[in-house]
Amino acid sequence: MSTFHFELVSPEKLMFSGEVTQVDVPGEEGDFGVLAGHAPFVATLRPGVLTVYGGEHVPTMIVVRGGFAEVGPNGLTVLAQEVVPVDEIQPEVIRQAIQDAEEDLADAKDDRTRDKATERLAQLQTLKDALGH
């Protein structure tokens, strides 16, 4: 299987750089897979799990939040606002974050705060579902 270059960049640092065979990306318009030779493409990310396939390794799953993906002549680059390897996420942390978001939603006094809390809760629920917790 052909490989291509993939880079995952967060505001803090370059999180991953190397040759891979496939990357599944959580796009705003739906998930999409990138293989070698993919047509040039730019997409906005939604919160979700990015899955990286390559070599003999088990697929690497990484949680991304916000940002965008660009497929170009040099491969795929994902610029994400937040990046967390799935194996670093504890289920109880997610449960607590969901509880906090539900409380924020219940306490919201205006539409803007309510919308923000609703969005955060939806993101956390998506993450919980993606991780199977």
Q: What do you see in this structure?
A:
The model has no long low-confidence stretch (mean pLDDT 87). The protein is built from two helices and eight strands; from the N terminus they run ββββββββαα. It is elongated and about 50 Å long. Helix content is 29%, strand content 44%. The protein is of the alpha+beta class and 133 residues long. Strands 1, 2, 3, 4, 5, 6, 7 and 8 form an eight-stranded mixed beta sheet that branches. Strand 3 and strand 4 form a beta hairpin. The chain folds into two domains: 84 residues, ATP Synthase, domain 1; 43 residues.
- Please state the structural category: alpha+beta
Instruction: Assign a percent range to the helix content.
Output: 25-40%
For the largest beta-sheet, the strand count, sense and barrel status come to: 8 strands, mixed
Overall 3D form: elongated
CATH superfamily of the largest domain: F0F1 ATP synthase delta/epsilon subunit, N-terminal
Q: Average pLDDT value?
A: 87
Beta-strand residue fraction: 35-45%
What is the architecture of the largest domain at the second tier of CATH? Answer: Sandwich
- Number of helices in the DSSP assignment: 2
The CATH class assignment of the largest domain is Mainly Beta
CATH topology of the largest domain: ATP Synthase, domain 1
Span from first to last CA? 33 Å
